Amino acid sequence: MSVDDVLVIGAGISGLACAHALGARRTVRVLEAAPRAGGLVRSVAEDGFQWEEGPEALPPAAAAVRALCNELALPIEEASATAARRYVLHGGALVEVPASPPALLASRLFSLRGKLRLLCEPLRARGVALDGSIADFVRHRLGAEFLERLVDPLVGGIHAGDAEELSLGACFPEAVELVTRHGTILAALRARARERESGAARALWKPHAGMGALVEALARALGPALELGQRATSLAREAQGFRVGLADGSSRSARTVVLATPLAAARTLLVEAAPEAARTLATMSA
After folding, report:
1. 97 and 150 in contact (C-beta within 8 Å)?
2. C-alpha dihedral over 142, 143, 148, 154, to 10 degrees?
């Protein structure tokens, strides 16, 4: 049986990007349990409309992803000026996302108690929760109501993930930089409002054909090295590296294995090959 240099398990955006980055200098194979690649990233076009079933856009700071799109010859679409006005569903109606401290205090998104909690933000300890989850940071600085009614919906639209699980520094490094520079979120919002007024603010963006175009391009670049409908069920060490057992009874061998799967799947696969790592993952929520 041939031995791959690297075997990536999971063809979501993380697995595909990893395989693409490694593929120029190493032999890579990607296994995906689902019949399509991309995981949560999917664009749908129907009846003249296009929408995203996962993350909708990318933040201005995603320079590495922009470079990847350029490498794959994917045209970029910047959000229009009207996209500066964003909305969330609250109380059965669309409510505009407030973008400045006065707008926050005037918005019907928040209760009086929630607004008073927002005003206390300058009194919060500045260095706390900067290296934790998005939810930890927001709760500490702005309160649970702000997290539930505003941040959770916005995080879902960009990352299609849970603010409790996503790292603030990894997903929103600009937030850490802004709070470090300005001291408080309210001060950072005032600075951003001035940028918008001067036209210096940067826009959200995505591939012109939708976020799904990125995973489709990565999948095409992999060609036959991407195997769909192949669910990994076991991972064991062997002389040449690792053996991955598949649901159909076959197996693959590789010198290096990359797990780009949801937490629960990674935890199951590591029980035999890396029991200590599996025990560590068992302490984390999926």
Report:
1. yes
2. 10
Q: Please answer whether residues 30 and 15 qualify as being in contact, where contact means their C-beta atoms are separated by less than 8 angstroms.
A: yes
Q: What is this structure's pTM?
A: 0.72
Is the distance from CB of 182 to CB of 175 less than 8 angstroms? no
Q: Is residue 146 within 8 Å of residue 138, measured between CB atoms?
A: yes
**C-alpha R_g of the chain:** 22
Residue carrying structure tokens 């076991």: 234
Residue appearing with tokens 């702005």: 142
Locate tokens 């029980």: which residue?
271
Q: What is the pLDDT of residue 89?
A: 87
Q: 88 by DSSP, 3-state: which?
A: strand
Nearest Cα residue to 237 out of 279, 273, 274: 273
Q: How many residues does the chain have?
A: 286
Q: What is the pLDDT of residues 255-270, one digit of tens each?
A: 999 999 998 999 999 9
Per-position b or e across 112-125, b if 16+ CB within 10 A of its CB: eebbebbeebeeee
* C-beta separation of 90 from 114 below 8 A: no
Let me know: does 225 contact 29? Beta carbons within 8 Å: yes
Which among 214, 194, 215 is positioned nearest to 205, based on CA atoms? 214
Q: Is 266 exposed, middle or buried (0-12, 13-18, 19+ CB in 10 A)?
A: buried
Which neighbouring-strand residues pair with 76? Answer: 207
